[in-house]
Amino acid sequence: MNLTKIIGWVTFLTGIIIIGTTLYLTYNIFIGEVATPQLLSFKSSSQQVQQEPVSGLGGELQKMLSNQIENIIPTKSIEKISNLAVWAAGAWILIFGGSKISELGIKLISVPVDKET
Predict the structure, then answer these.
(1) Distance of alpha carbon 37 from its chain centroid, rounded?
(2) Terminal alpha carbon distance of the chain
(3) What was the pLDDT predicted at 115?
(4) Are 98 and 18 in contact (CB under 8 A)?
(5) Taking the C-alpha atoms of 50, 52, 55 and 60 in order, what is their torsion angle to the nearest 10 degrees?
(6) How far apart (Å, rounded) are the C-alpha atoms in residues 11 and 17?
(7) Fewer CB near the last or first residue (10 Å), C or N of the chain?
(8) Which residue would you say has higher pLDDT here, 53 or 13?
């Protein structure tokens, strides 16, 4: 075996390792074995902006509506979904890069060897 084929095999296996590791980590995150990487965090909306107190029906309606929205869509679930989306995008980039590295290795492996007679 010449040096080109050895380098080809190393790059091919490196790409396969990148793809396999990314898939393994992603699988563990999505089944809940590993915590989601905290890449994004949101502040809680419990800090209300100081405004003039609104009295009457309008003020009560505003308070009830904000409480209901917080109950329907909690901030923690939005944060977790956002972190999962960012992780999925990063995993896609790693898998795409690993496939390109493996493709380069395959091209190096398939280079014909010149035999001197």
Answers:
(1) 9
(2) 17
(3) 63
(4) yes
(5) -30
(6) 10
(7) C
(8) 13
Q: How many C-beta atoms lie closer than 10 Å to residue 36's C-beta?
A: 16
E strands along the chain, which residues? none
What's the predicted TM-score (pTM) here?
0.69
Look-up: residue for tokens 């989601």?
A: 36
The pair phi, psi for residue 53, each rounded to 5°, is -65, 125
In the block, tokens 């977790």 appear at 80
Q: Residues 33-80: pLDDT tens digits?
A: 988 888 877 776 554 555 555 567 777 888 888 788 878 877 788 888
With a cut of 70, say whether residue 116 has pLDDT above it.
Answer: no
Residue that the structure tokens 């040096």 belong to: 3
* Residue count of the chain: 117
